[in-house]
Every structure is written in structure tokens, then in C-alpha cells.
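ping. complex inputs:
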Amino acid sequence: PESEKRRILIGMSNTGGGHKASAEAIKAAFQETYGDKYEITIVDLWKEHTPVPFNAMPDTYSFLVRNAILWRITYQFTNPKLVHVPYLSAVSAFVSRHVSQALDSYNPDLVVSVHPLMQHIPIKVLRDRIKSGASKPINFATVVTDFTTCHNTWFCPGATRCFVPTEYCRDLAISNEMDPRQIIMHGLPIRPAFSRRLPPKPRLRRQLGMAPALPAVLLVGGGEGMGALEETVAQLDSRLGDKCQVVVICGRNQKLQERLRARPAGAGHPLLHVRGFVDNIHEWMGACDAIITKAGPGTIAEALIAGLPILLNGNVPCQEEGNIPYVVDNRVGAFETRPDRIAAIMDSWLLKGGRHWFEDMGKRAKALGRPEAVYRIVDDLAALTEEPYFDFGPATAALLGAEGAKKRK
Ligand code: UDP
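pong. complex structure:
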């Protein structure tokens, strides 16, 4: 019956495409595993539930991240706890009331954050509400959606659980004073569609309008279509000509899509497939032989599941930097920013290289992929809705200055 439904509130923010994709992956895996036993609501707490100017946070990020030096300064400056804790504490004075109203209206049985700026303030608001009797005692979980290097605001000791994708993140959580009992490592939550069996490659390619037997490269630049994609297509064109086909997923970058569609086609040029924001990236990954992408955590984790060798062509400064050695050291790909050299690498991978060596790279990728992670995370979250409220609060209280915290058991 309706009254037995458990409500889970997932807080995300549209900074890049990855947080939303992770939130949707969790929601889809909940539905697949538990039907409608859980009601999952995904909400951009900053944009929808804080006042001006805080609600402009996603747009501010979009601006900063396109101006690398500004982003680097903002990120590094706010990374130490000594800076971001007092800062978030000050911000909470302006937004707490709104966040509390939001919690009132959703009335969740569990709050889950998939965003680095959704720990300290929601946890403090939640604790205050529980203490004052405004809310029943409920747990809070963080699902980290960065892969390796990530901002310290992901880790707030007041969270009941923190799900991390890699050892690297686990170590970061511990260095941020989280208790090992709070930290769980399953992998990044990737949409269930990536775990499903796809038709054999030639059939899949025909379904997608591709040539069934021509080597295929997939080019993506995250949800926003970032990076030198157009120049890379030009270099692939001059180096590989019509010996390959190239799929470019432009995401929300409309201008890129228009310019690519205007490129010369036909004999001597690669067969070019240009798409905007697609919902079936898992099919395009399954249909291609290699991927060229910026070092986005979501795309890397998806490409690993698909068993695709990965050529990283750039990264968002700071939080994506550690993803490059992750790919290179695990020997599942390479890092190269110059489009002419990228084309040369693709030539060696797809046309000239030893087939075994290239296939081994794909096998290693597949072995590193964690398609089951999202299901494990969802099972743990489901259990967390039943688990008695555990107050890790004293640590948060010490951080954010709340008083009268219970002693940690
Ligand atoms: N994505 C998608 N359709 C597109 C472009 C991107 O579904 O047309 C998804 C992609 O599969 C991945 C996410 O958007 O899950 C991008 O996340 P990532 O962490 O790679 O980069 P971000 O955009 O967050 O910087």
C-alpha cells in the first residue's frame, strides 16, 4: 500500500552531466530491483530550494569551469577544511530555512547526496530538525560521483554512510576524518542499461545507422560536448580518410553539432555520425571500437563497462586530474591532447597496431568495469532506510558549531 512506500530524496546539482546521470542511475536501479516500493525524488537543492544568489551555483560552476584558472583557484582555495567548513557554516545561515522547508515538503525516509556541495548544510539542517522533533530520525548517505581526485567537501563525518568508487577516494575520506565504518566501496553508480546484453556489434551498428564492418571511433566531451572535438574530427579525416567511421556525441553543444554536420562527406572522408544529447550512449559505446573523451568520471566508468579502450583528450582541472593516471596506469588507454597525435594513436589502435595488444586493452577495461556497483549501492541504501538513525553528529557538530550533540557510540 501507498503508506508503506519509503521515500528517498536524492540531492544533486546540474554542475556537468555526471551528478544527474548518477542520480538517475540510482533511481533506475531502485525501480528495477524494488519496483515501486521506493519513491525516489531527484532534486537540485541549490537551484530549486535556496534563495538568490545561492540558486545560481550551477551556472556559476559552468562559468568557472570554462575559465580553468578561475576554477583552479576556487577549488584549491576552498579545498582545506579550515576554509570550506566556516564558509559553508556562514552560507547555511542564509539557506538553512529554505533547505528545512524542502525537507518538510519531501518528508523523506533517507537523504542521499550525489554532489560535493550537499553534505555539510543538509546534514546540519537534518540534525537540527531531528533534535527539535521537526523530523523523524533518518539517515544520510553520500554517493561520491568523482572517480579519484575529488574535493574535500564530499566527505562530511556527519553522514551515516559514504559510498566511494575507488581506493583513492576511500583514502581521501579517511584523511577527512571519516570513520572506516562509514565508508563503503562498490564503484560508481552507472545506469542499469550498461549491464544489459547488447545485440552483436554488426547488428547493433546497423540499428544505429552505422557501417557494420568499418572500424569505429566514438568521440564525446561530457554532457556539454567539451574539448577540441571538431579539430579531432578534422585530423581523423586527414589521417584515416574513409578507412574508419567516427561517431560524435555533441551533448548539449548545439553549435558543435551544426558545424560538424556541415563537414564534407563522401569518398575520402570518414563516415561521420553526428548526434546531440543522446539517451543511448551505452549502445554507441557497444557499437564502437574505441572512445576519445575528456576525463569525465561517468564516461570513463561507462567505457570500462563497455570494454572500450579510452583515449583521454583533456580534463576539467582539479577533480578530473587523477582520472588520467587511473586510465594510463591500468593500461586501458592513453592521454593525449593534440588532435594530430590523437589521430595518429587511433591509426595505430584501429588500423596498424597489433590486434592482440589492442584487444587486451579492451579486456582489461572490461575487467575494471563495475556494472554491478549501482545495484549494490541501491541495496545498501534500501537497508539504510530501515537502519536505526545513527548519530555520527558530534563530528559534524564540532565542524559546524551545533550544540548539545549526543556522544558518539
Ligand atoms: N551523457 C549522455 N548523453 C550525451 C552526453 C553525455 O547520457 O549525449 C552522459 C554520459 O553517458 C555520462 C555523463 O553524461 O554519464 C557525463 O558525465 P561525465 O562525468 O563523463 O562528465 P561531465 O559532463 O559530468 O563533466
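Confidence is low (pLDDT under 50) at residues 402-409.
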